[in-house]
Amino acid sequence: MASAEGRGKRDGAKKPGPSRGERRSSKRGGRDDATRGEFVDAMRNLIGERWGTVWKSMPVALAGEDIEGVHDVRVASRRLRAAMDVAVECFPGEWYRPLHRTAKEITGALGEVRDRDVLLEALGAQRATAPDPERPGIDRLMERIERERVEARASMERYLSGLLEGGLPGEVARRFGPAAAPRGEDER
């Protein structure tokens, strides 16, 4: 037979009171507000640094001379997104949501190029060890993927250039501090 306490918890009749930690913090007069302020400041700084890393990585991705440039921007944007995911409740949604969405879009905008870079690298390695009769097929596949990559890269370049030339860098720096500005827009 279940105890009265057990029945109360199951049917919702008994509601627990505040935890000891909650009671203690309310006695300390505003400590939660101070802690929240420290958290918001820490997240603002972290997000600013993460935006700065995204901006810093973009020139190599745009130059197209090193496939790791695209990878570096994707990694930086995923880290930015992770920080922004944690901080959703810290900042007003009317300006935070569009910036958060843009961080997600950056990752996606580079995905098509990165996928093709990885495919081409793997196919190149496979071709090097493939028997001679298989090489023409691998070559045709690599040519098709390279054409797709060129198209994806043009789209990526338009997108990233638009971000850099538009108002986003200034908005990000205004919201998250000078560490969030692209190189040359702040006094480091």
UniProtKB/TrEMBL annotation:
Region Disordered: start-end pairs: 1-36
Stated name of the protein: CHAD domain-containing protein
Domain (CHAD) ranges: 54-162
InterPro entries for the chain: CHAD_dom, CHAD_dom_sf
Organism encoding this protein: uncultured Thermomicrobiales bacterium
